[in-house]
Specification:
Blueprint lengths: L1 H21 L17 E19 L6 E4 L2 E16 L3 E12 L5 E2 L12 E20 L2 E20 L2 E25 L3 E20 L12 E19 L13
Antiparallel strand pairs: 1-2, 1-3, 1-10, 3-4, 4-6, 5-6, 6-7, 7-8, 8-9, 9-10
């Protein structure tokens, strides 16, 4: 009887093993990759156009005189920043941008060539601008729409040409404010890096700068001076490389 019982046990064990081998193997649940995150730091370049509006007021000229120096020119520069995505879709960051004109931005004024003396030619321009401010945006997967505002600093320059040559060719940096909006698109996405392309508009207001001629030898508006009011509208394409130091590296898993 013991031999018969042992034989039955062996047969039963073999049958159970064979049935188990025929059962389908349950695949592990798929691992989902997270949605693209806009969190990270970035650096890049920007190119576009600027439209400046400048008016020069000469309080000590031949009477009280105003002249316009409005111009348009191509610009280019660099930018950098950092941002953090929170509450699923909101993105908060800080951006620093710089741009300058591709050519001499000084514009001869009108009327009377921009000078109190119609025999002269006086010009004004905006040489370079730096903006620093926060960005608040809303992300739609690979797109980010944002608004921005903050501090702006621009280099205002002036000059005059007379029959005797160029004089009063000097500049002064003036602070002000800016506000604008833009859209970014993640054109290529890696595991921790991404290439971002975007389009941005900014309105810049630098207020009124007192341009006191160095030839006067005094720091206030004594003789040959002008008050230059400056604003600009800028549209630029932005190209950025973003790196996300927060997202950890892990195994490459297909997204379902």
């Amino acid at each position: 009887m013991q031999k018969i019982a042992l034989l039955l046990s062996v047969v039963a064990f073999g049958t159970t093993s064979a049935m188990a081998a025929d059962l389908p193997v349950k695949a592990p649940p798929p691992v989902f990759l997270p949605e693209y995150s806009w969190t990270g730091v970035y650096v890049g370049a920007n190119f576009g156009g600027a439209w400046t509006s400048q008016s020069a007021f000469w309080p000590n000229g031949f009477g009280t005189l105003n002249f316009n120096h409005d111009g348009s020119f191509g610009v280019g520069g660099l930018h950098a920043g950092a941002q953090y995505q929170w509450a699923n879709n909101w993105v908060l960051g800080l951006d620093i941008s710089w741009f300058s004109g591709f050519k001499d931005t000084q514009v001869v004024g009108t009327p009377n060539a921009g000078c109190p003396n119609p025999a002269d030619f006086c010009a004004a321009g905006l040489a370079s601008v730096v903006t620093v401010g926060p960005r608040l945006g809303y992300a739609f997967r690979d797109f980010l729409v944002y608004g921005t505002a903050g501090y702006a600093s621009g280099e205002i320059n002036v000059s005059a040409v007379t029959p005797g040559g160029v004089f009063d060719d000097f500049s002064k940096r003036k602070g002000g404010w800016f506000a604008g909006a833009g859209v970014d698109y993640a054109a290529w996405k890696g595991r921790q890096t991404a290439i971002i392309v975007g389009l941005e508009y900014k309105h810049i207001d630098l207020g009124t700068a007192s341009m006191n001629s160095p030839a006067d030898g005094v720091p206030f508006c004594a003789g040959d001076c002008r008050l230059v009011k400056t604003s600009a509208d800028v549209v630029q394409a932005r190209f950025s490389l973003k790196w996300d130091p927060i997202t950890p590296l892990g195994p490459v898993v297909a997204k379902y």
